[in-house]
Design a protein that fits this description.
CATH class of the largest domain: Mainly Beta
Structural class: mainly beta
Helix content: under 10%
Largest sheet: 4 strands, antiparallel
Number of strands: 22
Distance between the termini: 10 Å
Number of helices: 0
CATH topology of the largest domain: Methylamine Dehydrogenase, Chain H
Shape: globular
Radius of gyration: 19 Å
CATH superfamily of the largest domain: YVTN repeat-like/Quinoprotein amine dehydrogenase
CATH architecture of the largest domain: 7 Propeller
Number of domains: 2
Strand content: over 45%
Order of helices and strands: EEEEEEEEEEEEEEEEEEEEEE
Amino acid sequence: MHRLKFSLAVLIICYQQLFAQNTDRLFFKEYYSDNQAQGMTTIDGINFIWTADISADGKHVYTCGGVANVASGGEDDNAIAVFVRNQTTGELTFVQVLFDNQDSGIADGLFSCRDVKVSPDGKHVYSAGSGDHTLGIFSRNSMSGQLTYLSSIKDGVGGVDGLAGLQSLAFNTSGTRLLAVGRTDDAIVLFTRDPVTGSLTFEDMKKNGLAGVTGLDRPISVSVSPDGKHVYTASGSNVNFSGSDALTVFSINESTDNLNFVASYFEGQSQGMQTIDGLDQVTAVK
């Protein structure tokens, strides 16, 4: 999802009969801004919003964002915000915000948050705190959508490695495994998940340039195949930093919960009679 700064826009897909053919069309519905009044409350936590995720039951929307700079007076929310979604109209109602403990809050894993994911079973929500290299874990009330902060996992603590500059999270379909990429560490990390408690266990980590792994210079995005057998990462450069400009593939050994490097594909790489194109400054893989 593209970054939306300062507001959350909602597009509703409408269906119209056009020229005797069914055509799907997008119509702008509404947008929501930080500090916007909504009924008896005020929307908060979406200043410098970065990404959003929707619970599998379609009832709630979760957003996160922020920057690792609170000296400016806290204008850039290092937070996760919760909205109830009207499943008929798509409209949202703000219900909760939780701030990082470095930004006047009680939660961890929200400092310069770059991703938020609801577990497939809807019981937990996870955040990628890039600024403090921390993965936040929250329990979710399936009725209200509200979150309770449970715990966090930090890079360099308890044998965990690869989360520096944490950027992106992805579940396998069953929700038993969570993948993460650390842009500063040039790494991908595999955790197994306890579906009851939501806790994560560090299982494996692969870094660019080690054990034959390539294409992981500054990974930005990670995705898991629907069958859960393979993981894909996107590592792109930008005007400020170098990067692999590549897609990389790993397989998951389901009996050992280990990652195995398969291949990487670079911008400008020859592949048979063709040359790979379109990966310069790649930012996402889905």
